[in-house]
Amino acid sequence: xxxxxxxxxGLRTILSVFVDKKNIQTKMNERLKELQKEIVLKGxxxxxxxxxxxxxxxxxxxxxxxxxxxxxxxxxKAIDEKKLKIAGQPKIDLKQFGEGKDLNYELQIDCLPxxxxxxxxxxxxxxxxxxxxxxxxxxxxxEIADQNKKFEEKNEKAINGDQVTFDYSATVDxxxxxxxxxxxxxxxLGKDLFLKGFDEQLVGVKKNETxxxxxxxxxxxxxxxxxNKKTKFECKILNVKKPIxxxxxxxxxxLLGAKDxxxxxxxxxxxxxxxxxxxxxSITKKEILDQIEKNxxxxxxxxxxxxxxxxxxxxxxxxxxxxxxxxxxxxxxxxIKLGLLLNEYGEKxxxxxxxxxxxxxxxxxxxxMPGQEKMVLDYYQKNPSASQSLKGSLYEEKIIDLIKSxxxxxxxxxxxxxxxxxxxxxxxxxxxxxxxxxxxxxxxKSKIKKNSxx
Length: 454
Description:
Helix content: 40-55%
Mean pLDDT: 88
CATH superfamily of the largest domain: Trigger factor, C-terminal domain
Structural class: alpha+beta
Radius of gyration: 33 Å
CATH class of the largest domain: Mainly Alpha
Low-confidence stretches: 431-435, 445-454
Number of helices: 13
Number of strands: 11
Number of domains: 3
CATH architecture of the largest domain: Orthogonal Bundle
Strand content: 15-25%
């Protein structure tokens, strides 16, 4: 095999690869001998079909198979020989091929750019330490108690907040349909979780009463023919219960997996603090990444840009892609550039993520989702790409943590109100720069779940 650099322009290199016909014939002969063990032809004993007979009948197919294998092998060797770091899949252009001929092809390669990292010493960033107020902890505690309230039977008419249990039989235009009957349905009146306007029609019902209700099936009903259909429900009221708010005491705390109320408050504080930290760490990270991107110039392979745009816009309609074409290209370039810079920094500092670290992170996620452990584990077992993506996230996290340890990071103590404003300002639309939005812990209410252990 001979490899020559035919041209090199920017990040694109074209190699000319030559494979002698003698080498190809040797590979052909080897493959024909292998096929002797596999092919059965009438008139010949198994394993005794002459290679020339196999060639006469299957020659073109065997040649194509051999050349395909040679292309894969020589492509890899050519790239290694010229020590090229490729970006994406190379393109092959066959110039000469055919039985009895030398093989000559050109390899069009988009290469990764040389990345020259500048010093990060002068970079600055702000990290935030949030003081969680007692008032917020008490509010969350009351919210949790309300979520874990119990119900006891009552003989009076149902009012908002009561729990009504009923059986129903429904019809559309006088006819039954799939899913038109339900048994033991429980609704907490006022939450409107069943069908719009359903709860308010149950206000005033009593146990053992039968009530006729009118409702409209949802627009996203699984059966398209039933979408937005007016429906009559005949409801048999089984019982009516009034809410009894759980007392905030040690029993409630133990039910939720804490030792006592003091321990439960501590868990709530840690959970809220953790959620604020996640949101604010995203802002600190963005501050660092902006400086890294601004202080480096990197040539980017167009094929990587195109691939990134395709991934970003795969779920968008054509008109949406066109409308945001310029912005999407800008964001794609930013992502690729930062990816190259961070990876170079990680390699220079010999940072790695072990399989053990990935497993530990998966276990951490499992513990954070009580009752859904099997679902999380199955997800990673059935989706190898998810584990690979997680490994990439952990690698990036390691790189950012190392950068933080090398630069001037000022810690600012703030209260939750100040934290909310910082998060809100960060999430405001900005035409000139794309930001990765982060979620407010207050708007994304935290929930302490019951401990599944008995």
